[in-house]
Amino acid sequence: MDINARIAQFENMCQSDPENEMAHFSLAGAYAQAGRFADAAASYLRCADIVPGMSKAYQLAAESLVKAGNKDRAAEVAIRGYTIATEKGDRMPASALAEVLKSLGKQVPEVAGKTAKPVSLPLGGGPTGPIPPGSFVCRRTGRPGTKMSRPPFKGPVGAWIGENIAKETWETWIGQGTKVINELRLDLSREQDAETYDQHMREYLGIDEALLEEIQSKAPSR
Length: 222
Description:
This protein is mainly α. The chain has ten helices and no strands. It has helices at about 5-15, 20-35, 35-50, 55-70, 70-90, 90-105, 155-165, 165-185, 190-205, 210-215.
């Protein structure tokens, strides 16, 4: 499916369910892939409106604004996102946002009270505050979670998910995936529909084309 068709699908999902952060997040990713970085930033910020404290959305919005050439707005978003991520203990988005600010020649703010009052987390992200040492950290949310006892399905992508995605995040995808099937009227017995479902899953879990290629390249040859 070409990128314009995917954008149309995600736009329809957002229109039919305006409060579905997964649809807006996926739409933002599709916009970014198409080089529509201003639109991508707007959709990522819509995710942050729906789920307050979604630091990953602020990170990707700031990065998209930089690519769109709107550096002043990128700095504003990066400062806001960095503050939220630091207060929550979301180390990966905080680090990425700090790099955005440095690239813009802006000072990284000092954030007082790093264990500030809890903020709602997206996608079942676990407790707020600093991440305890030794925790399993979900690559999708940047928050501690439960490591899956086994991969959710066979193959290199399933193995990667089992090693990098928290059980709570995967269970949330199952619920969102049901929406995808219903809203797009997918028949998973059809190869094309199954691939469409897999594309949505990868978007949701943060597996972009570069990462997918890396995962598949490391799979043992038969």
